[in-house]
Specification:
six-stranded mixed sheet; three-stranded antiparallel sheet; binds protoporphyrin IX containing FE
Length: 407
């Protein structure tokens, strides 16, 4: 069994290249003691993501056993059970039922109607950045508050409550790496918060927000239970900002490596969307997809994975598979890409349209306002988050470089 190298978070792609050269799937040990099979090539990744015998429900007997056997006694996969009844922990037919109830809330027309508001939030945040400050952390000032404000407004979480969510979600996004205590504390706090919010909605009436919508949706008389509702709200809140923050961050990082390309976007707003698509492939914000387990022996390439074992799909590796993408380390927004940065199969990201729209608006408004932006540190000084799920920097120091251009 291999261990993740100590520089994995700083430089995952070199390790992935080496693994791909040796095979499609490898047994790995995480430093928490969790053992899992890591899938690194594109075709095998897609096979796993759509395989009916590879499942997610942690409450089933096999699911509970697989997690227990892989995690030993460390308990690292334990969270508050009441938040666990969501899409990423569900298999068909239960998954199809949950997905059907929530999909209309993310319909393209609803997302298009949100564009105006996202643009206004981006402008408000940019207005608050003092150009005379010289150096700022763009993650803190812009890439983080933008998606969390959008997702809080969408859900109906009062914006003044958003601060603790950052801490809570950081503790829970990465099940195999976080400490059990930190996860337990964060998930308990989230349960208490959402219980209160739902009670308030019931008492004071419903609004035009997602929590109100989830409280009322029915499909043939079928409704979400209270715990399914708070689990769904929790998933959307965490999935809806942790990832988008880093899509914005990773895009800005890539662009600032080539300042003329960045500046040129001011006059070519149509070039932003293909650029973001290539960032999703080249350095997307989800490195390794969420936990799965086998319910029957599965053969991938030369390797047979026995039943009842954990499987992790390295999306960041699949998206650089040289058998699928020509010159995969090159950043080329003109390539026709069928990356799997948003996953594949039934768990394909529900918020892909929202994430693409937010990132496009974030970058377009940033370059209009700060065309002379520069990265304030060298590449090797950037600190990447120690998360196997999320690929993003801990902070993004930039020099504002002079007065901002008027919008
Ligand atoms: C750049 C931003 C984003 C990326 C890269 C991303 C990526 C992903 C990936 C890879 C999955 C599948 C995980 C797996 O199969 O293990 C997923 C699922 C999901 N995402 Fe996203 N996501 C992003 C933004 C969002 C946003 C903005 C929302 C909601 C507002 C969202 C909500 C969800 C939900 C609810 C699921 C579960 C779907 C299901 O199980 O049926 N995501 N996302």
């Amino acid at each position: 069994m291999r261990q993740l190298p100590t520089d994995f978070f700083q430089a995952p792609y070199a390790f992935y290249r080496q693994l791909r050269a040796e095979g499609s799937v490898h047994q790995i040990g995480l430093r928490t003691g969790v053992r899992a099979w890591l899938v690194v090539d594109y075709d095998a990744a897609k096979e796993v993501l759509r395989h009916p015998d590879i499942r997610k429900d942690p409450h089933s007997a096999t699911g509970a056993q697989a997690r227990h056997a892989a995690a030993g006694s460390s308990g690292v996969t334990a969270t508050n059970r009441r938040l666990s009844y969501h899409l990423l922990n569900a298999d068909p037919p239960h998954h199809s039922r949950l997905r059907k109830l929530v999909t209309p809330a993310f319909a393209p027309a609803r997302m298009a109607a949100l564009e105006f508001r996202v643009a206004a939030i981006a402008d408000e945040l940019l207005d608050r950045i003092d150009p005379a400050a010289g150096r700022v952390d763009l993650l803190e000032e812009y890439a983080f508050p933008l998606p969390i404000t959008v997702i809080c407004e969408l859900l109906g979480v009062p914006v003044e409550d958003r601060e603790p969510f950052r801490e809570w979600s950081a503790a829970v996004v990465d099940t195999p790496m976080s400490t059990p205590e930190a996860m337990r504390e964060a998930t308990d706090a989230i349960v208490e918060y959402f219980d209160g919010l739902v009670a308030m909605r019931r008492e004071h009436g419903l609004g035009d927000d997602l929590i109100s919508h989830l409280l009322t949706v029915t499909d043939d008389g079928d409704r979400l239970s209270h715990d399914e509702l708070i689990s769904m709200a929790f998933l959307i809140l965490v999935a809806g900002h942790e990832t988008t923050v880093n899509l914005i961050g990773n895009t800005v990082l890539t662009l600032l490596a080539d300042p003329p390309r960045y500046r040129a976007l001011r006059d070519q707003p149509d070039a932003v969307a293909p650029l973001i698509e290539e960032v999703l492939r080249h350095n997307g914000p989800v490195n390794i997809a969420t936990l799965r387990y086998t319910t029957a022996p599965i053969t991938l390439g030369e390797t047979e994975i026995p039943a009842g074992e954990l499987v992790l799909v390295a999306l960041g590796s699949a998206n650089r598979d040289e058998r699928h993408f020509a010159d995969p380390t090159a950043f080329d927004p003109d390539r026709a890409s069928n990356h799997i940065a948003f996953g594949y199969g039934i768990h394909y990201c529900l918020g892909a349209g929202l994430a693409r729209m937010e990132a496009r608006i974030a970058v377009t408004h940033l370059v209009t306002r700060f065309p002379e932006l520069r990265l304030a540190v060298d590449d090797d000084e950037l600190r990447w988050r120690e998360s196997i799920l999320i690929r993003g920097v801990q902070d993004l120091p930039v020099d504002l470089a002079g007065a901002p251009a008027l919008p």
